[in-house]
Amino acid sequence: MAKPKKDQVYADPQAQIDSFVFDERVADVFDDMIRRSVPGYAMTLSNLGIIAQHYAKPGSIIYDLGCSLGAGMHAMGSSLATSGVTFRGIDNSDAMLRRCRENMADISQKHTVELICQDIQDTVIENASIVALNFTLQFIPKEERLDLLTRIREGLLPGGILVLSEKILFDDPQIQADLTTLHHDFKRANGYSDLEIAQKRAAIENVLIPETIGDHEKRLAAAGFSRDEIWLQCFNFASFLAFK
């Protein structure tokens, strides 16, 4: 993986805050942005390799839906010895996929890597042992999330899993306020100014729509997954394992 450039997208005052998009400007600094913005992100990546070693099946496909720069696929592929595995990364941002292709160059020497510029809601899921949906479902309209998860479950092989990582809400308003404060403190500790935090929050407010743990669990059950567990939570971010 290339050394990340520093995120300064919201460092200067902006007269108008446009809605957040994964454009060239964001793609150029995305690795730094997500690592400094998402508590537990580094641990999520480091354990994806362990998860992949356990659940990847020979001759199957590992999907990364909303693969961005390919960090999730890279984490899984770098230590995976399972034979005949294909990594299929899907993203609707050309800017992201161009950098993803560079980042996955070493993995493509060990495994088949396919990168497709496509809306993940149009992706056919088939012969999948693992599907990763990391910090992506939250950008899909709520009413369309169940259909996507159902198609993922249908495309998984027996014993296959979904890794679902998301920003989460809390039913208790005080807990929500406390965890939001800690999230902002996390960003400050990683060098973001109050201006950057405020402008990023305004840009993403109506684009990223989080839900509670209960909402996710009900939807996973409705999609037909047999069970699910939270394997990692840090402040207001959580990652689920959902089993076919």
UniProtKB/TrEMBL annotation:
Q: Which GO terms describe its molecular function?
A: carboxyl- or carbamoyltransferase activity; S-adenosyl-L-methionine binding
Q: Return any one Pfam family short name.
A: Methyltransf_25
Give the EC number(s) listed in the UniProt record: 2.1.3.-
Superkingdom in the source lineage:
Bacteria
The alphabetical list of record keywords is: S-adenosyl-L-methionine, Transferase
Function, please? Catalyzes the conversion of S-adenosyl-L-methionine (SAM) to carboxy-S-adenosyl-L-methionine (Cx-SAM).
Family, per entry:
Belongs to the class I-like SAM-binding methyltransferase superfamily. Cx-SAM synthase family.
Q: What NCBIfam families does the database record attribute to this sequence?
A: carboxy-S-adenosyl-L-methionine synthase CmoA (TIGR00740)
Q: What is this protein called?
A: Carboxy-S-adenosyl-L-methionine synthase
Q: What is the lineage of its organism?
A: Bacteria, Pseudomonadati, Verrucomicrobiota, Opitutia, Puniceicoccales
